[in-house]
Amino acid sequence: MINEQIRDREVRLIDTDGAQLGIVPGRDAQKLADEKRLDLVKISPTAKPPVCKIMDYSRFRFEQSKKEKEARKKQRTIDIKEIRLSPNIDTHDINVKVKKAAEFLKGGDKVKISIRFRGRELGRTEVGHVIFNDLTQQLSEYGNVEKPPKMEARSMAMFMAPKTQAERDKQEKEKAEKAEIKTEELKADA
Protein backbone atom coordinates (compact mmCIF):
# COMPACT_ATOMS: atom_id res chain seq x y z
CA MET A 1 0.00 0.00 0.00
CA ILE A 2 1.23 3.47 -0.78
CA ASN A 3 0.26 7.07 -0.08
CA GLU A 4 -3.51 7.62 0.31
CA GLN A 5 -4.20 3.87 0.45
CA ILE A 6 -2.68 3.87 3.94
CA ARG A 7 -5.58 4.69 6.31
CA ASP A 8 -4.06 3.74 9.66
CA ARG A 9 -4.36 6.24 12.54
CA GLU A 10 -0.77 5.77 13.68
CA VAL A 11 2.27 4.38 11.88
CA ARG A 12 5.89 3.78 12.81
CA LEU A 13 7.71 6.05 10.36
CA ILE A 14 11.14 5.49 8.83
CA ASP A 15 12.86 8.34 6.95
CA THR A 16 14.59 8.03 3.55
CA ASP A 17 18.01 7.56 5.18
CA GLY A 18 16.72 4.73 7.44
CA ALA A 19 16.36 6.84 10.60
CA GLN A 20 13.33 6.02 12.72
CA LEU A 21 11.08 9.00 13.32
CA GLY A 22 8.93 7.14 15.85
CA ILE A 23 5.18 6.62 15.97
CA VAL A 24 3.43 9.36 14.00
CA PRO A 25 -0.23 9.95 13.05
CA GLY A 26 -0.97 8.65 9.53
CA ARG A 27 -1.90 12.07 8.13
CA ASP A 28 1.32 13.66 9.44
CA ALA A 29 3.37 10.87 7.87
CA GLN A 30 1.67 11.48 4.53
CA LYS A 31 2.34 15.25 4.82
CA LEU A 32 6.05 14.60 5.49
CA ALA A 33 6.24 12.37 2.41
CA ASP A 34 4.44 14.99 0.30
CA GLU A 35 6.82 17.72 1.50
CA LYS A 36 9.79 15.65 0.35
CA ARG A 37 7.94 14.83 -2.90
CA LEU A 38 8.26 11.10 -2.20
CA ASP A 39 5.87 8.26 -1.47
CA LEU A 40 4.76 6.81 1.84
CA VAL A 41 5.04 3.01 1.55
CA LYS A 42 3.69 0.49 4.05
CA ILE A 43 6.53 -2.00 4.58
CA SER A 44 5.17 -4.15 7.40
CA PRO A 45 1.37 -4.11 7.50
CA THR A 46 1.06 -6.78 10.21
CA ALA A 47 3.13 -4.93 12.82
CA LYS A 48 1.41 -2.96 15.59
CA PRO A 49 1.47 -0.10 14.57
CA PRO A 50 2.23 -0.74 10.86
CA VAL A 51 5.70 0.29 9.65
CA CYS A 52 5.86 2.85 6.84
CA LYS A 53 8.85 4.30 5.01
CA ILE A 54 9.28 7.46 2.98
CA MET A 55 10.84 6.55 -0.39
CA ASP A 56 10.61 6.88 -4.16
CA TYR A 57 8.28 3.96 -4.86
CA SER A 58 8.86 3.74 -8.62
CA ARG A 59 12.63 3.58 -8.08
CA PHE A 60 12.12 0.94 -5.36
CA ARG A 61 10.03 -1.24 -7.71
CA PHE A 62 12.62 -0.84 -10.49
CA GLU A 63 15.45 -1.96 -8.18
CA GLN A 64 13.38 -4.92 -6.93
CA SER A 65 12.69 -6.11 -10.49
CA LYS A 66 16.40 -5.69 -11.31
CA LYS A 67 17.36 -7.88 -8.32
CA GLU A 68 14.82 -10.54 -9.34
CA LYS A 69 16.23 -10.62 -12.90
CA GLU A 70 19.77 -11.05 -11.54
CA ALA A 71 18.60 -13.88 -9.29
CA ARG A 72 16.93 -15.62 -12.24
CA LYS A 73 20.11 -15.29 -14.33
CA LYS A 74 22.22 -16.93 -11.63
CA GLN A 75 19.68 -19.68 -11.03
CA ARG A 76 20.48 -22.97 -12.76
CA THR A 77 17.85 -25.59 -13.31
CA ILE A 78 18.98 -29.15 -12.79
CA ASP A 79 17.44 -31.59 -15.22
CA ILE A 80 17.04 -35.29 -14.63
CA LYS A 81 18.33 -37.33 -17.56
CA GLU A 82 17.33 -40.98 -17.83
CA ILE A 83 19.38 -43.91 -19.06
CA ARG A 84 17.56 -47.21 -19.61
CA LEU A 85 19.23 -50.61 -19.46
CA SER A 86 18.15 -54.23 -19.64
CA PRO A 87 19.30 -56.99 -17.28
CA ASN A 88 21.13 -58.90 -20.06
CA ILE A 89 23.12 -55.93 -21.37
CA ASP A 90 26.56 -56.53 -22.89
CA THR A 91 29.75 -54.92 -21.50
CA HIS A 92 30.29 -52.71 -24.56
CA ASP A 93 26.74 -51.40 -24.29
CA ILE A 94 27.29 -50.66 -20.59
CA ASN A 95 30.45 -48.70 -21.47
CA VAL A 96 28.49 -46.61 -23.99
CA LYS A 97 25.81 -45.88 -21.37
CA VAL A 98 28.50 -45.02 -18.77
CA LYS A 99 30.04 -42.46 -21.17
CA LYS A 100 26.63 -40.87 -21.73
CA ALA A 101 25.88 -40.77 -17.99
CA ALA A 102 29.32 -39.24 -17.35
CA GLU A 103 28.51 -36.49 -19.89
CA PHE A 104 25.25 -35.73 -18.12
CA LEU A 105 26.93 -35.63 -14.69
CA LYS A 106 29.75 -33.38 -16.00
CA GLY A 107 27.07 -31.05 -17.37
CA GLY A 108 25.58 -30.73 -13.88
CA ASP A 109 22.46 -32.82 -14.48
CA LYS A 110 21.13 -35.61 -12.29
CA VAL A 111 20.89 -39.05 -13.87
CA LYS A 112 18.20 -41.67 -13.38
CA ILE A 113 19.47 -45.10 -14.38
CA SER A 114 16.76 -47.72 -14.76
CA ILE A 115 16.70 -51.40 -15.63
CA ARG A 116 13.44 -52.81 -16.97
CA PHE A 117 12.67 -56.44 -16.22
CA ARG A 118 10.36 -58.44 -18.52
CA GLY A 119 8.82 -61.85 -18.07
CA ARG A 120 11.13 -64.34 -16.36
CA GLU A 121 13.73 -61.64 -15.76
CA LEU A 122 11.65 -60.53 -12.76
CA GLY A 123 12.79 -63.66 -10.93
CA ARG A 124 16.43 -62.54 -11.15
CA THR A 125 16.45 -58.96 -9.89
CA GLU A 126 19.84 -59.50 -8.19
CA VAL A 127 21.37 -59.11 -11.68
CA GLY A 128 20.18 -55.50 -11.55
CA HIS A 129 22.07 -54.90 -8.29
CA VAL A 130 25.26 -56.28 -9.87
CA ILE A 131 24.86 -53.94 -12.87
CA PHE A 132 24.17 -50.95 -10.60
CA ASN A 133 27.23 -51.70 -8.45
CA ASP A 134 29.37 -51.81 -11.60
CA LEU A 135 27.89 -48.52 -12.85
CA THR A 136 28.41 -46.87 -9.46
CA GLN A 137 32.08 -47.80 -9.49
CA GLN A 138 32.59 -46.56 -13.05
CA LEU A 139 30.75 -43.27 -12.41
CA SER A 140 32.18 -42.59 -8.92
CA GLU A 141 34.55 -40.02 -10.44
CA TYR A 142 31.67 -37.91 -11.76
CA GLY A 143 28.81 -38.35 -9.31
CA ASN A 144 27.43 -39.79 -6.10
CA VAL A 145 24.47 -42.12 -5.61
CA GLU A 146 21.59 -39.95 -4.47
CA LYS A 147 19.00 -42.73 -4.17
CA PRO A 148 20.18 -46.36 -4.09
CA PRO A 149 18.65 -48.96 -6.45
CA LYS A 150 15.01 -49.67 -5.67
CA MET A 151 12.36 -51.80 -7.37
CA GLU A 152 9.40 -49.89 -8.78
CA ALA A 153 6.85 -52.25 -10.37
CA ARG A 154 8.74 -53.97 -13.25
CA SER A 155 11.83 -51.78 -13.17
CA MET A 156 14.67 -50.96 -10.80
CA ALA A 157 15.90 -47.36 -10.63
CA MET A 158 18.82 -45.50 -9.09
CA PHE A 159 19.50 -41.75 -9.04
CA MET A 160 22.96 -40.17 -9.26
CA ALA A 161 23.79 -36.53 -8.58
CA PRO A 162 26.85 -34.70 -9.92
CA LYS A 163 29.73 -34.13 -7.56
CA THR A 164 30.14 -30.62 -6.19
CA GLN A 165 33.17 -28.55 -7.15
CA ALA A 166 34.68 -29.07 -3.69
CA GLU A 167 34.36 -32.85 -4.00
CA ARG A 168 35.97 -32.78 -7.47
CA ASP A 169 38.85 -30.63 -6.19
CA LYS A 170 39.43 -32.99 -3.27
CA GLN A 171 39.44 -35.99 -5.61
CA GLU A 172 41.95 -34.34 -7.98
CA LYS A 173 44.20 -33.46 -5.04
CA GLU A 174 44.15 -37.09 -3.86
CA LYS A 175 45.01 -38.30 -7.39
CA ALA A 176 47.93 -35.88 -7.58
CA GLU A 177 49.24 -37.07 -4.20
CA LYS A 178 49.03 -40.73 -5.26
CA ALA A 179 50.85 -39.98 -8.51
CA GLU A 180 53.55 -38.12 -6.57
CA ILE A 181 54.03 -41.08 -4.21
CA LYS A 182 54.33 -43.48 -7.18
CA THR A 183 56.98 -41.31 -8.86
CA GLU A 184 58.95 -41.14 -5.61
CA GLU A 185 58.77 -44.95 -5.26
CA LEU A 186 59.97 -45.40 -8.84
CA LYS A 187 62.90 -43.03 -8.23
CA ALA A 188 63.81 -44.90 -5.06
CA ASP A 189 63.77 -48.27 -6.90
CA ALA A 190 65.99 -46.95 -9.71
Principal-axes geometry comes out as: elongated
Query: How are helices and strands ordered from N to C?
Result: EEHEEHEHEHEEH
Whole-number mean pLDDT: 87
**Spatial arrangement of strands, main beta sheet:** 2-1-4-3
The helicity comes to: 40-55%
Report the total helices: 5
Low-pLDDT parts are none
Radius of gyration: 31 Å
Structural write-up:
The chain is of the alpha/beta class and 190 residues long. Helices cover 44% and strands 28% of the residues. Strands 2-1-4-3 form a 4-stranded mixed beta sheet. A 4-stranded mixed beta sheet has the order 5-6-8-7, covered by helices on one side. A hairpin with a 5-residue loop joins strand 1 (10-14) and strand 2. It is elongated and about 85 Å long. The model has no long low-confidence stretch (mean pLDDT 87).
Task: Record keyword descriptors for this entry.
190 residues, alpha/beta, 4-stranded mixed beta sheet, 5 helices, 8 strands, 44% helix
What is the strand and helix layout of this fold?
Elements: E1 10-14, E2 20-25, H1 26-35, E3 39-44, E4 51-55, H2 57-74, E5 80-85, H3 91-106, E6 110-116, H4 126-139, E7 143-152, E8 155-162, H5 165-189
Parallel strand pairs: 1-4, 5-6
Antiparallel strand pairs: 1-2, 3-4, 6-8, 7-8
